[in-house]
Specification:
The protein is α/β, with parallel strands linked by helices. The chain has one domain: P-loop containing nucleotide triphosphate hydrolases (Rossmann fold, 3-Layer(aba) Sandwich). The chain contains 9 helices and 6 strands. A 6-stranded parallel β-sheet has the order 3-2-4-1-5-6, with helices on both faces.
Length: about 210
């Protein structure tokens, strides 16, 4: 049975596409992975083109959206253990379909109030579709902002993953090369954090 993970956040700049790319690369080491880019910016499509050009390890990739999306979701579920979806940064038909299809919705939030405010709509959509959702504290440097954000998430009783992804330049550097952090710098702190995030996800999805 294919596990579907949808990465969703209404606010741009939270690191949604970078997170989806890194999850795909890391999970592809042990699973048959498909990656679906339905974000109109198509950052993942450009990242994947760089990946193909440099001959990095391959996995299934698609950028279909709109009226073809339902059929594409069905196609990618066949023959893969894991499907990761990078969804649009707004609640529209494609985003609803991506959330509805998910076994887990990941909502990246930076340690800022606007990120947390934007996450509220995504969490409500996941609840309406009866899909489990978790916040991922992303690009979070140690300090007061992070501490305050963690306290606010706890106060609001929002579900979140335990692992925090730090504000690591390695993620941006790897993405610019068409790579994931576990390929570009496998022993880095960023890679350690990413692998810990995978373990969190596996505990939920099985």
């Amino acid at each position: 049975m294919t596990v579907v993970i949808t990465v969703a956040q209404q606010k741009g700049g939270a690191g949604k596409s970078t997170l989806a790319a890194n999850l795909a690369v890391a999970f592809a080491a042990t699973r048959r992975v498909a990656l679906l880019d339905i974000d109109p910016q198509h950052s993942l499509a450009r990242w994947h083109a760089l990946r193909v050009a440099r001959g990095a390890s391959a996995f299934a990739f698609s950028a279909e959206s709109g009226w073809r999306l339902g059929n594409e979701l069905d196609r990618l579920r066949r023959g893969h253990d894991l499907l990761i979806i990078d969804s649009p940064p707004q609640i529209d038909t494609d985003a609803r379909l991506a959330v509805r299809a998910a076994d887990l919705v990941l909502v990246p939030v930076q340690p800022s109030a606007p990120d947390l405010w934007a996450a509220e709509g995504t969490l409500k959509l996941a609840a309406a579709e009866r899909r489990p959702a978790r916040l991922v504290l992303n690009r979070a440097a140690a300090g007061k902002l992070r501490t305050d954000m963690e306290a606010e998430i706890l106060r609001l009783d929002y579900p979140r993953l335990e692992t925090v992804i730090g504000n690591r330049a390695g993620f941006a550097s790897a993405f610019a090369q068409g790579l994931g952090i576990t390929e570009a710098a496998p022993k880095s702190t960023a890679a350690v954090e990413l692998r810990a995030l995978l373990a969190d996800i596996e505990r939920i999805t099985g």
